[in-house]
Amino acid sequence: MIYFVGGSPRSGKSILGQQIAAKLRIGWISTDLLFEILRAKQVEGMKTKWDASTEAITLAAEWFFPCLERFVWRISSHAESYLIEGADFLPAQVARLSAKYQISSVFLGCSKMTLDRFDRFPGHTHGYAHLAKDVRQQFAQDIPFWSEFVRQEAERYTFPYIDMSDEFPTRLNEAEAMLIVSPRCN
After folding, report:
1. Is the pLDDT of residue 115 over 80?
2. What is the CA radius of gyration of the chain?
3. Is residue 34 part of a domain?
4. What is the DSSP secondary structure assignment for residue 101, as one 8-state letter?
5. Domain of 117, in residue numbers
6. CATH code, domain with 142
7. What is the pLDDT of residue 123?
8. pLDDT value at 14 more than 80
9. Phi-psi region for residue 79, left (φ > 0), alpha (ψ -120 to 50) or beta?
10. DSSP state letter for 77
11. In a domain, 186, yes or no
12. Alpha carbon distance 112, 56 (integer Å)
């Protein structure tokens, strides 16, 4: 089983990924790491600046898909189960992968975001703290729009979506239950 935790930045994907991986005793990776490898190799066409428009999010996910597909193919030959989390894929890519692999997925978002919440959100990505305030403010402003796009796409492809804005621990448990209980096999 390949588990996917996707969604907007700062929605709790890494926390959920780590929690599930520990519970199921499986490996996991953030697409952030895969992107760092691609960045180090200076791969052409890679997204290099923040753009939360639906067009840019979709183009970036499509650009990344061959890398994700190759990673899933390779990891499935080495591990029975594995978890992949990140903001770099959308439900459309997971749906395409579900035609070949046993998959369970959940998408997370955050419909309410302020700069204060962005700065103190319980995520594992510390890289945001060193960004200028106006850049962090732009991220905080864009996350609800990104989340709404992911919500619509998850609904379109019939994947579960959880808004993590309120009662974070409760929503985290809901997302875990959806991911572990409802695999999608085509």
Report:
1. no
2. 15
3. yes
4. S
5. 2-181
6. 3.40.50.300
7. 58
8. yes
9. beta
10. T
11. no
12. 21
Vertex 139, ends 135 and 141: CA angle to 5°? 115
- In a domain, residue 24? The reply is yes
pLDDT tens-digit series, residues 60-76: 999 999 999 999 999 99
Across residues 102-113, what is the average pLDDT?
Answer: 94
Which burial class, exposed, middle or buried, applies to 134 when counting CB atoms under 10 A from its CB (0-12, 13-18, 19+)? exposed
DSSP track, 18-42:
HHHHHHHT-EEEEHHHHHHHHHHTT
Which tens digit of pLDDT belongs to each residue from 117-140? 777 765 556 667 777 888 888 888
Domain count, the chain: 1
Confirm whether 177 is domain-assigned.
yes
Looking up tokens 């499986």, which residue turns up? 26
Candidates 154, 89, 161, 117; CA nearest to 10 is: 117
The pTM (predicted TM-score) of the whole model is 0.90
* Structure-token match 């594995």, residue found: 82
> Alpha-carbon distance 155 to 80, whole Å?
28
Q: Return the exposure string of 91-123: e unless at least 16 CB atoms fall within 10 Å of the residue's CB, then b.
A: bebbbebbeebebbbbbbbbbebeeeebeebee
